[in-house]
Amino acid sequence: MIRNLAGRIAVTILKLLARLPLWIPLAVGTTLLPLYIPFRRRTRTILSSIHAIEGRIAMCPYYRMRLRLALLSLRHLLRLPDGCTVTIEGEEHYRAALASGRPVLILGWHQGPVELLHRIPHESPLATGRPAFLLTAKAFAPALTELMKSGRGASRSSATSKEILHPHSLAGLRRWEKEKGILAMMIDQVPGEPEEWLAPLRGSVQLPYPGRLLDWLSEKDAEVLVVTVRLETNNRIHFRYALSEAKILREDLPFHLDRSLRAGSEQYNWSYPKIRFQRDGTT
Q: Count of domains in the chain?
């Protein structure tokens, strides 16, 4: 009962925030950051571990960026205008994958305006008639789960609406393979106990990802794309599609993730509770 009530209150607050001019919650949130940051000691440790590799990431600018990205993602979740322009690099890879007639696997991670990743696949005539699936988690309350489901799975075109799958939905994954569908997931944010660790940035930070699921996917005759999204200057959002191969997915993913984090480590969600700092081989 308490969880359901908290979820409904949270949904109401989120909807109100999304409809405010972006500068208002950003200004209020920035003002409150000095009160919040002292409680984020683990994040400070992680950012310090990146310092020697990526250059200094200061706490206050980092969390102000996280706040801005969260507000943009909230607008994307509710399908509200964001005032941004989108550029896409490697779109030809995406279109070629859709045209291949094989199952398509699209992998992303929690960087940039992340709800745009959940909007994949984009509207495309090539996607007409192909089933699309999104592997995502339930929120802590039913109201929040329904909000995410409606925002992530809906589409202007019924032909490209996505079916929401949960991480252990083997039946849904088998349908994706059998029906040559499109499956999108965030490889670093799948909930539950981690089966293995993906360690970018020379192993200084460990990110949990589902090892057995990755093994299962790598055995399929699928087209594999890695996608990243980054907020740039002048309200531009940059997508980048890169090719991978199912057979070498386990070896290839660290390269793509490392490249993405080096290009925009200040936009990654280092506060995510499943990320662990590694020091001298221990966590």
A: 1
Length of the chain: 283
Residue with tokens 């509200």: 80
Q: How many angstroms separate the CA atoms of 173 and 165, rounded?
A: 8
| Per-residue pLDDT band at 38 (split at 50, 70, 90) | very high
131 assigned to some structural domain: yes
Rounded to whole angstroms, how far apart are CA atoms 86 and 33?
29
Q: Which residues contact 283 (CB under 8 A, 6 or more apart)?
A: 206, 276, 277
174 alpha carbon, distance to own chain's centre:
23
Instruction: Assess if residue 163 is contained within a domain.
Output: yes
Write the DSSP assignment of 37-50 as a string of letters. GGG-HHHHHHHHHH
Closest residue by Cα to residue 37 from 66, 74, 73, 14: 66
What pLDDT score does 187 carry? 87
Asked if the structure places residue 58 within a domain, the reply is yes
Q: Give me the DSSP letters along 66-102.
A: HHHHHHHHHHHHTT-----EEEEESHHHHHHHHHTSS
Encoding tokens for residue 282? 């221990």
Q: Does pLDDT of 263 surpass 70? A: yes
- pLDDT of 109 higher than 80: yes
- Residue 43: domain span: 2-272
- The stretch 33-47 carries a mean pLDDT of 91
Task: Give the model's pLDDT for residue 237.
Answer: 93
